[in-house]
Design brief:
α1 packs across α6 (163-188). With 379 residues, the protein is of the alpha/beta class. The longest helix is centred in the middle third of the chain and has 26 residues, at 163-188. The strands form three sheets. Strands 3-2-1-4-5-6 form a six-stranded parallel beta sheet, with helices on both faces. The protein has a three-stranded antiparallel beta sheet with strand order 7-8-9, with helices on one face. The chain has 14 helices and eleven strands. It is elongated.
Length: 379
């Protein structure tokens, strides 16, 4: 018999997470855990995190609660360790050695809570020549070869915002590691450290391509391969109104439907003739220039040609499919992606908007039974 649903709770209900405030992938990882139902307490510095946006619009802090603690004071350190004693997971994104110098490194935390999962989020990792150096997403994906994959053959590498490094190679790998370690901790009572380095995750994301490279099926340069824009039936094309359509007609049956609907039919060069890919690309580009994005979208609607309009961030929530699925949601007037993935029993939902720094001290002190935390709020 299926379990009763718990709408808006999530499979991590009851899991307690301490997030030592930072920027980028750490907060996003903590947001994902909050989306899945965890009780995430974000420990803010009195001076703020640095590059943060207006707290009212920082969606990565949705569903969390916030307290302000001075980690450089003995009292503040004691408060954080009190929270750690009651937590299942801690997430920090400092440079290697900083948490230890503050007195909240793995050894100190495991002394208070041996089953704690200690998640460390960095760009370079906890060891290696670059471990102590500063960096950002673009540098991490640059040295792994990932950035060099992206863009046209005759142009500089295209910068994919901070999605590939910070969030895919960083946050998501940290969350996978934390959940695996949490499973182990609950089975054995023993916690451990999860060293999530963006360079490791970004490199790991390209595993399939490394295999293709070894097999001779991928050239070690961008813009000339099957999945990097080099293939004329896997890329983007400008339309008559200056918008774009995305084409992913890789399989023969999808390709045939694509060229038929595009109006090329028997005029298109053979798809397997790589020597004529340039000619095919020109033919496809010329056809797309004859109609607007809206017209092409209507034409390919309901087909298996694997063609879709390239939408902007503001346009995406209104796409009929995404709207039907509720892929985006509105919380406190902010349109944002809804939690993902979805669960049949432990349904998830955005439980609250972005946490305001220090706004939840009283509630956290009560719910986590850390009364001394109120003294920090008064200090």
């Amino acid at each position: 018999m299926a379990e009763a649903e718990s709408p808006g709770q999530g499979p991590l209900t009851g899991v307690r997470v301490v997030e030592l405030a930072g920027i980028g992938p750490g907060p996003f990882a903590a947001m994902l855990l909050a989306d899945l139902g965890a009780d995430v307490v974000r420990v803010e510095r009195p001076s703020g995190p640095g590059l943060a946006i207006d707290p009212d619009f920082d969606v990565t802090n949705r569903g969390k609660r916030s307290v302000i603690v001075d980690l450089k004071s003995e009292q503040g350190l004691a408060h954080v360790l009190d929270l750690v004693e009651r937590a299942d997971v801690l997430i920090e994104g400092y440079r290697p050695g900083v948490a230890e110098r503050l007195g909240i490194g793995p050894e100190a935390c495991h002394a208070r809570n041996p089953s704690l999962v200690y998640g460390r989020m960095t760009g370079w990792g906890q060891e290696g020549p670059l471990a102590p150096r500063a960096g950002h997403d673009i540098a991490y994906i640059a040295v792994t070869g990932t950035l060099g994959l992206i863009g046209a053959a005759d142009a500089p590498p295209a910068v994919p915002a901070n999605l590939v490094g910070d969030y895919a190679g960083g946050s998501l790998y940290l969350v996978v590691g934390v959940l695996a370690a949490l499973h182990h901790a609950r089975a054995t009572g023993t916690g451990q450290v999860v060293d999530a380095a963006i360079v490791d995750g970004a490199a790991h994301l390209a595993s399939m391509i490394h295999g293709m490279l070894a097999a001779g099926g991928w050239q070690d340069r961008r813009g000339v391969n099957l999945l990097d824009g080099g293939c004329p039936f896997y890329g983007t094309y400008e339309t008559a109104d200056g918008q774009y359509m995305a084409v992913g007609a890789l399989e023969p049956q999808f390709y045939e439907e694509f060229v038929d609907l595009l109006g090329l039919g028997g005029q298109a060069p053979a798809r397997k003739d790589v020597a004529r890919w340039g000619e095919l690309r020109e033919a496809v580009a010329a056809r797309f220039k004859t109609r607007t994005r809206e017209e092409w979208t209507a034409l390919f609607e309901g087909s298996d040609a694997c063609v879709a309009p390239v939408l902007s961030l503001r346009e995406a929530p209104a796409h009929p499919h995404l709207a039907a699925r509720g892929t985006f949601t509105d919380v406190d007037g902010i349109t944002q992606p809804a939690p993902a993935p979805r669960f049949s029993v432990t349904r998830t939902a955005v439980r609250s908007g972005p946490a305001r720094p220090g706004a939840d001290t009283e509630d956290v002190a009560r719910d986590w039974d850390v009364p001394r935390l109120l003294g920090e709020a008064d200090g």
